[in-house]
Amino acid sequence: MVDPERSTELLWGARSRRGLSLERIVRAAIELADAEGLAAVSMRRVAERLGFTTMSLYRHVPGKAELVDLMRDEVAGEEPAAGADRRPGWRAELEAWARDGLALYRRHPWLAEPSGTRRVPGPNAVAGFERALGAAARAGLPPAEVVAVVTLVGGFVESAARQVLETARAERRTGVSEEEWWGARDSLFQHLDRYPTLSRIYREGGYDTPLDPFEFGLQRVLDGVEALVRDGTRDETRDETRCAVCGKTVEAAATGRPRDYCSRACRQRAYRTRKS
Amino acid sequence: MVDPERSTELLWGARSRRGLSLERIVRAAIELADAEGLAAVSMRRVAERLGFTTMSLYRHVPGKAELVDLMRDEVAGEEPAAGADRRPGWRAELEAWARDGLALYRRHPWLAEPSGTRRVPGPNAVAGFERALGAAARAGLPPAEVVAVVTLVGGFVESAARQVLETARAERRTGVSEEEWWGARDSLFQHLDRYPTLSRIYREGGYDTPLDPFEFGLQRVLDGVEALVRDGTRDETRDETRCAVCGKTVEAAATGRPRDYCSRACRQRAYRTRKS
DNA sequence: CTCTCACGTGTATGGCGTATACATCTGGTA
DNA sequence: TACCAGATGTATACGCCATACACGTGAGAG
User: Fold this and answer.
1) Nearest alpha-carbon partner for A125 in A143, A103, A101
2) Which of A63, A109, A117, B150 could pair with B132 in a Cys bridge, judged by C-beta atoms 3.0 to 4.6 Å apart?
3) DSSP strand E in chain B: where?
4) For residue range B164-188, what is the model confidence (pLDDT) as tens digits?
């Protein structure tokens, strides 16, 4: 059903050979999704918006999964807002990348919507990845850690975007704020005295002015990366190395092994990965 | 279509009033999802597995969305593996919580699968949340930050679980390892010289033995939280406070305002949130 | 013993992705 | 100019999905 091979071919192939229809289909689908969400994107509706029959789409796109892949990569190619701050340094660059990512999700909220299709990276998505790699690489980390850092930040952006968009959607749906909505869920909060910490934190005002999950999380994540960077540059001659799985600093064993793991669990994981 | 009110009522209500069917339905649906994925869970298939007609389910469950809510909360109530390490201290507890979360995703991979339904928290999910709040609260952070930390870690676990399960699924599907799969995508990698950093990192072996995204990311995230904790306890008498949006440390302005923001962007965001 | 009503069934509707067979349009060659 | 092959669009149909609605039916309450 889902054919990654065909998807990559479409994503990377010479797009406008005949200059015509594939792009119009993708664009129409994006407009539909922007207006009504991913759920509204059906082959029927896209075709009808273009004034064609449903099956005509299949002359240009193998199926819906590939269409969604193309939609994703198409919007990934949009230029980030030029006005934003572009300070130098790996942290500022990574931060800007993350912020551009969130802006992309804001422009196209359906990106955060679940779709059964597996994601195949297209040229525009890879270009974004490249940009993030460049930023992370300037931190001076070893290559595998550069990749892991970008994966981490990228995953965080998606997760935070989902949270932010979810609450935004909840507010818009009924016209009431998130706070009021939860306030009305008596049926839920009736039971909350079973949870002492939760209700204590609620009483103490932990929910009154919630921190922005994106801004807060981003700073924590980048702080974590920064700790890793500092840890690595601190002292090159020292007899310590990094766990090859999770990156924790570990003192080299007396035996002088070339690579160490911070725990049995991590060692096992490394072996399991290699066995393939 | 999706009715949160009804969902909460079902999730929190006295479950086995008549002792029988709702639980059997949920359990059958979970078995189906465990075996064949969320996509295989249709009202037909669930009913047929129980030896009833499709419509009989609607006597016990208002619709599919609510069924999925119930499935999620049901598995959220499973006991975490008892053998795991249970060291004290907020960091170890939060780490254990995250690891239990990942284990849950491993037992029920469909949790990470996208489903159009919005998630309504049930009692078991809230119990997990309570546990994480307790751990984070022991770090001595102000309440709003405790909530934000748990949100961050929870979001990370979901994101990392998705990544881990995705690669695991990719390996199983064709029987080849992730590495070989990507190696076979010539049509993709042909174009990769357009991306200098990416190909340099690839050449330098950044992809040869990738770090475990869960283990690596978890340590970074917790390092970030730890930096926040240390920052807060370091010096209470100092004339500094935290940005009310993103948690960055900021020096109090000369004017002695009660609450400060680290940047114009964060101040704007705070106002926008309050306007509701 | 009857009434009632929760529970299960049968049938139908409208939407979906897409397989297959057919029609039409177009451009290159004879 | 005539013709034909391939590209492009169309018509119809199938099987799946969630679910609305009207209808039985059987066990417990009065």
Assistant:
1) A101
2) B150
3) 240-242, 249-251
4) 888 777 666 554 444 444 444 445 5
Protein B59 CA to nucleic acid C7 C1', in Å? 7
Asked whether strand C has any atom less than 7 Å from the CB of B181, the reply is: no
Per-residue pLDDT band at B133 (split at 50, 70, 90):
very high
Residue with tokens 């964060």: B266
Total number of residues shown for chain B? 276
Q: What is the 3-state secondary structure (H, E, C) of chain A?
A: CCCHHHHHHHHHCCCCCCCCHHHHHHHHHHHHHHHHCHHHCCHHHHHHHHCCCHHHHHHCCCCHHHHHHHHHHHHHCCCCCCCCCCCCCHHHHHHHHHHHHHHHHHHCHHHHCCCCCCCCCCHHHHHHHHHHHHHHHCCCCCHHHHHHHHHHHHHHHHHHHHHHHHHHHHHHHHCCCHHHHHHHCHHHHHHHHHCHHHHHHHHCCCCCCCCCHHHHHHHHHHHHHHHHHHHHHHCCCCCEEECCCCCCEEECCCCCCCCCCCCHHHHHHHHHHHCC
* Residues B28-73 pLDDT 10s: 999 999 999 999 999 999 999 999 999 999 998 989 998 999 999 9
**A243 — alpha (psi -120 to 50), left (phi > 0) or beta?**
beta
Query: Whole-angstrom Cα distance, residue B11 to residue B23?
Result: 11
Are the Cβ atoms of A144 and B211 closer than 8 angstroms? yes
| Nearest in space to B213 (alpha carbons), one of A149, A46, A227 | A149
Q: Which nucleotide is nearest to A58 (CA to C1')?
A: C18
CB atoms B216 and A152 under 8 Å: yes
Q: Closest nt to B47 (CA→C1')?
A: C8
Among candidates B90, B55, B71, which has minimal Cα distance to B7? Answer: B71
Q: What is the DSSP string of B60-87?
A: T-S-HHHHHHHHHHHHHTSPPPTTS---
Per-residue model confidence as pLDDT tens digits over A173-204: 554 444 444 444 445 556 677 899 999 999 99
Whether residue A127 is predicted with pLDDT greater than 80 in this model: the reply is yes
Query: To which H or E segment does residue B143 belong?
Result: helix B143-174
Q: How far apart are CA B274 and CA B103, in angstroms?
A: 38
Q: Tell me, in Å, how far CA of B33 is from C1' of C11?
A: 29
N-terminal to C-terminal alpha carbon distance within chain B: 26
